[in-house]
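testing teh design pipeline on a random one, pls ignore if ur not involved
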């Protein structure tokens, strides 16, 4: 396993067997976002998207939490006039747009599988980051909550989009307006979690799923993810046309030919990402 330098202690990164694991690392603040954390996360995701050695990205949190979202204490200090020159409204909006696209947007759109592993609470923008990933694994003691209404915010980092797609408009409105806490089992029932495991099994389950994805057909995964993302808002004919294009492309890959050969030979295929 290789430890990577992220430029800040607020984000840890390690790479092993095709899997890049990014750990939000402010356990004393329930891994609430910091500027340094978000900037480093954006840099790591941008690099991972273009690195052919990275087959799968895992996002998790240090300690007992996943991510509490924005640093409300830091916001209060800035509102009280501490922290240097305040950005103009337009500057703040532009900066947040760039940050959201580089983090949650990148997790959702990058052409590689992404997994959120939740050892504890995912709240506010932290929930948005988890929902931006393709798959979610929760410890049984973890919870999810939008939390925005409790601090007078409307929501950010794509959470309204991701939640509406996953649970439907009416349930998403309920969860945003009332900010109720969802247990891991409730999240599983709603389709927000893919797996729920005991807390001491979370790392092993995450390694299992990430390892399977890292050994999988990366070209096909790239096309699958684009197909699935387009299906969320695309017209059915356009989605089917895109599926046809990607399906025929996959048929020309080494991985497809290897898988077909392995099927005939009754063995597991060895994918090479080409």
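output:
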């Amino acid at each position: 396993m290789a430890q990577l330098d992220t430029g800040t202690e607020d984000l840890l990164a390690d790479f092993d067997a095709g899997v890049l694991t990014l750990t939000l690392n402010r356990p004393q603040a329930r891994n609430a976002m910091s500027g340094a954390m978000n900037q480093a996360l954006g840099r790591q995701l941008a690099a991972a998207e273009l690195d052919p050695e990275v087959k799968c990205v895992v996002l998790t949190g240090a300690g007992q939490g996943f991510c509490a979202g924005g640093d409300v204490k830091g916001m209060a200090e800035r509102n009280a006039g501490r922290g240097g020159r305040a950005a103009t409204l337009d500057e703040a909006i532009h900066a947040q747009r760039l940050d959201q696209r580089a983090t949650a947007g990148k997790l959702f759109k990058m052409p590689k599988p992404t997994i959120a592993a939740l050892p504890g609470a995912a709240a506010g923008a932290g929930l948005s980051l988890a929902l931006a990933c393709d798959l979610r694994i929760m410890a049984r003691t973890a919870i999810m909550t939008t939390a925005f209404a409790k601090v007078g915010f409307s929501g950010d980092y794509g959470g309204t989009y991701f939640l509406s797609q996953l649970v439907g408009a009416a349930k998403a409105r309920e969860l945003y307006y009332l900010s109720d806490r969802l247990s891991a089992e409730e999240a599983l029932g709603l389709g927000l979690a893919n797996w729920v495991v005991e807390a001491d099994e979370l790392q092993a389950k995450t390694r299992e799923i990430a390892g399977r994805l890292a050994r999988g057909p990366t070209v096909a995964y790239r096309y699958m993810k684009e197909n699935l993302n387009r299906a969320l808002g695309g017209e059915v004919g356009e989605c089917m046309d895109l599926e046809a294009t990607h399906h025929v492309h996959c048929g020309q890959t080494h991985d497809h030919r290897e898988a077909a050969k392995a099927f005939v030979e009754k063995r597991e295929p060895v994918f090479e990402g080409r």
